Amino acid sequence: MKILSDFIAILLFFGTYTVTKDIILATVVAVAAGLLQAAYTFVRFKKLNAMQWLSLVLIVVFGGLTIVLKDRTFFMLKTTILTWMMAAVMWVLQLRGQNGLQLLLGKEIDLPKPVWNKVAYAWIAFFVLLGLLNLGIAYPFTEEREAVWVNFKMYAYLPIVLVFSLAQGVYMVRHLPKEK
């Protein structure tokens, strides 16, 4: 149920844009839904995790700039900034001898350190490439590119993330310790 609630703002954004073709109005809906979703999560679970905070700050800041300045560029850049920030955090943790994925999932999944490192580096590369792909689709941030970008986000971006996540899951399962 929690995973579904994480997609409410995204689905409302796409639904609003599909009906109105107005990215500013769709952004207003996404920001409002993001704020309500974060408030609900905080009230229900008494906390937001780091990723939820980062996502909330980015949607409010970049969505707010899009709304106030009536400039789609900020909202279209949010995806690139988010993915590059995640890559940067994971890279810095790797440089410090820590593995961000192992910190997040290590209590549930027991993998050898080399496997954790390969998975972390794969995610770092994936996040960098995903940010570049978003820029390539969104640039030059014009009204003509707006519809292309929205369609990319709905019909390609989410499936790309899902397929990569599943592939990483399969790789990780192959390296789980054998039960005795």
Question: What is shown here, in short?
Answer:
The chain is 83% helix and 0% strand.
Report on this model:
- By secondary structure, the protein is mainly α.
- The protein folds into 2 domains: 1-70; 71-180, no CATH class.
- Helix content is 83%, strand content 0%.
- Helix 2 packs antiparallel against helix 3 (23-45) and helix 5 runs antiparallel to helix 7.
- The radius of gyration is 18 Å and the shape is globular.
- The two termini are 34 Å apart.
H and E order: HHHHHHHH
Mean pLDDT: 93
Work out the number of β strands.
Answer: 0
Q: What's the number of structural domains?
A: 2
How would a textbook summarize the main sheet? none
| Unreliable residue stretches | none
The percentage helix is: over 70%
Report how far apart the termini are: 34 Å
Query: Counting H and I runs of at least 4 residues, what is the number of helices?
Result: 8
As a percent range, the share of strand residues is: under 5%
Principal-axis shape equals globular
Radius of gyration of CA atoms, rounded to a whole number: 18 Å
Q: Give the helix/strand class.
A: mainly alpha
Question: Any chance you could write out the topology, listing elements then pairs?
Answer:
Blueprint: H1 2-6, H2 8-20, H3 23-45, H4 50-69, H5 72-95, H6 100-105, H7 113-138, H8 143-174
Helix pairs in contact: 2-3, 3-4, 4-5, 5-7, 7-8
Attribute tags:
180 residues, mainly alpha, 2 domains, 8 helices, 0% strand, globular
